[in-house]
Amino acid sequence: MLKEDDIDFALDEFDKSKSKNVDKSVTENFLHDFGLTKEETDRLIGLTVFDKDGTISRDDFSTTIVKNILPEEYFLTFVRKYFREKDPENTGKVDYEVLKEDSEFDNRRVEVWMEKNNKKEFIYEEFLQYMKEECRKIMAGEESMEEEHKP
């Protein structure tokens, strides 16, 4: 669950002046780096009330984001950041072997997806789609693939 303190803490990296107010460009850069798409960033910026000088207090910005970010947007911020970490050369692809080494993944589920789609790597959009599907399954309380394949 996203908290206002999380946003405020993360803003420190973008607000070099450490002022109590941040301007629109800082908030846009923050939301983009947080992992939101341009459309998601624009939606949240549109809900943000900036002062006449084009700034907003850090507290008000944090409150606006926490109240208005959609659960899927929040989840996908982590997915996008994860993909960027696993694709440091920005190729738009992540090899299955790289994911296999990561204990955060249910390897059997990834293996089944890869076999079903005859793939050895994820391209960015496929990875996002796969993670959305996995998130929906988890939210719906579906069994894991490992449990389904136990004898």
Topology of helices and strands:
Blueprint: H1 4-11, E1 21-23, H2 24-34, H3 38-47, E2 55-57, H4 58-68, H5 71-86, E3 93-95, H6 96-100, H7 107-116, E4 121-123, H8 124-140, H9 145-148
Antiparallel strand pairs: 1-2, 3-4
Helix pairs in contact: 1-4, 2-3, 5-8
Fraction of residues in helix = 55-70%
Task: Give the number of helices.
Answer: 9
Order of helices and strands: HEHHEHHEHHEHH
Rg over CA atoms, rounded to whole Å, is 18 Å
Shape: elongated
Give the percentage of residues in beta strands.
5-15%
Overall average residue pLDDT: 79
Fold and architecture overview:
- By secondary structure, the protein is mainly alpha-helical.
- The strands form 2 sheets. It has a two-stranded antiparallel sheet. Strands 3-4 form a two-stranded antiparallel sheet.
- It has 9 helices and 4 strands.
- The protein is elongated and about 55 Å long.
- Helix 2 (24-34) packs across helix 3 (38-47).
- The chain has helices spanning 4-11, 24-34, 38-47, 58-68, 71-86, 96-100, 107-116, 124-140, 145-148, and strands at 21-23, 55-57, 93-95, 121-123.
List keywords for this structure.
mainly alpha; two-stranded antiparallel sheet; 151 residues; two-stranded antiparallel ribbon; 8% strand; 4 strands
Short structural summary:
The chain has 151 residues and is mostly helical.
